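Feature request disguised as a bug report, sorry. It would help if multi-protein outputs had a clear separator. Right now it looks like this:
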Amino acid sequence: MDLDRVVSELGIVESRALLEPAWDASQDAMPEGEVRFLSPTFLREACRGIYLPEEITEAAVEAAQRVSGSPALCALAWHCHWCLYRYAHYPSRLADRWPSMEGVLGDADGLFYLLVLLSWFPHMEAVHRAHALPEPVVRESMDQIYQRGVTCSDMFGRWGLDGHAARWLSNYLRGEIYALGRLVHQFRVMDDPVRVYRHGASSMVIALSEDGVSYRADGQRFRKGDTGRMWRSRLVVTGEEIVGYPILPTGCAVEQEVALPAGEWVPVFGRGDPVLSFHIPGGTPLDHGACGASFRAAMEFFPRYFPERPCKAFYCSSWLLDTQLEGWLPPASNLVRFLQEFYLIPGGISETSILQAVFGGVPEDLSRAPGETTLQRAILDHLLEGKRINPGAGRCFLFPEDLDWGGQVYRNTKFPWDLIRG
């Protein structure tokens, strides 16, 4: 169907440029007649498969009937399905901005992207069946979909999903991510400019920056718009030694070269390696023991049920790994204890990341910003003193073989501090 006609009929002309990428390809591939994932039989089975309540299931079926009755809505639903699941390089930033369907679906607008999300249900079911996944893990993982709809209810006034939520949750429908207790774990590939080496005799670990990476004087990644002195890393690997700039477990690069004897240090991790990227759902406290239990569960679950997909490390990119937290919060706080368990690395996170997460954006009036939590009050005190937000680290890794939850192994026993302090 012609895109101009679709956006005109749906009243979303302002979203035309957003929907244009891959539009022709999706429409060429659109099946004639009924779109299967909009059928009542398909939807009821899919909703049962992700454990949605009956009232949401029936509301989704009704919404699908309305979508099926509109060629424009049907074409858009197929396009969104195509972009989420069949177009490998579709930019996620576009899906995050997909338009609301309130103008044509009214109160059912939050169900449009649920229909799109569930369109890949047979694939997910096949993955779960092929790997004989335990039902409790499937149920716990699918609950993340329901909980995200609860979160989005602040936007819709009722349960539903927007394009951003559907894009993120599509990882569950692909069979790429699973909830195990307090954390969820996703198959990913590490893409940071870091190479990690392990000492054969002592098992100590050191991360070196890749060659040619730009850093600020404080050892954080140099970002667009940064001012001040910049330095570049160097990495030279020969048969005799590895010479480079180390990254400390505290999340900053050091402008001091170290030389590692190649016969003693073995490369164990780097860009392009498979990882389990862990995520921290909101809504419940970051209980330290529960997080450790999730990592231990992951070490058992993934090798057992996905032996064909070995991963080298746990990995994360999050504002929760911002080292500013160590200066703002007490050492015994859950957030501080959590980030100190990992080997932190500079991630170039923005100054607004933590403000967006904690306040929902940059406070325009500090005197009226919420100060209900210890973290909110600490950040406000920081800003009211005239200090700027200066993020540190933001990313991390943890090798399963080094897991000693509570031991902060990279800061205490696994890092060769003598190479830096000597």
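(second protein starts here, but nothing in the output says so)
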Amino acid sequence: MNYDEQIFIPVTTMQQRFTGNDRILQIVVHASTVEAVPKAIEEVKAVIRKRHRNEDGFFRIFEVHSGTSSLLKISTVIKIALGSIAGFSLLVGGIGIMNMMLVAVAERTREIGLCKALGAKNSDILLQFLTESVNLCCIGGLLGVGLGVFVGKGMAYLAVRIVKIVPEWSAVFSPQWILISVVFSAGLGICFGLYPAIKAMRLSPIEALRAE
């Protein structure tokens, strides 16, 4: 590629006609592919050095790809931090669900004993308490999705009102990820509700009926 004839002569002529000097503040070069960027940089350096007697101190090359890599690293760090916060929040929420179910088992001991005395199987008791735990988590997940949609749309509205340059700032919500979050909430209810349900299932009917 002959950069001398294709770039420098037309740009120099334009500079002289419009600004009265031949200084070039910036040249933008596009490579055909990302893999061709290093080769294009070397070609541009060779042409500039040839035009200016192999001097390097008067020009600087900025590669957009390197800036993109830095942004991707920052984005990865932010995702890891937010993921850690979300995981910790889920752990705390799961422990809270388990404590609630343990309290429910303790308060409904006589009810469990009565159900077993009337013929309820251990699997019925297990399923009952697991269903309650899953329902609690699913309701919490749906409330979280609703809050997320509300906050997302509110932030988008504020962004448009504050940054006047942006005509529209749309908040995008994926139905697929909403479904995944609700399903994950149900799985969380099963995981943290299993121990209280097993504890309720193993209660002796006689001992449960004696409980005050």
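Even a blank line would do. Unrelated, but nice: Confidence is low (pLDDT under 50) at residues 1-8.
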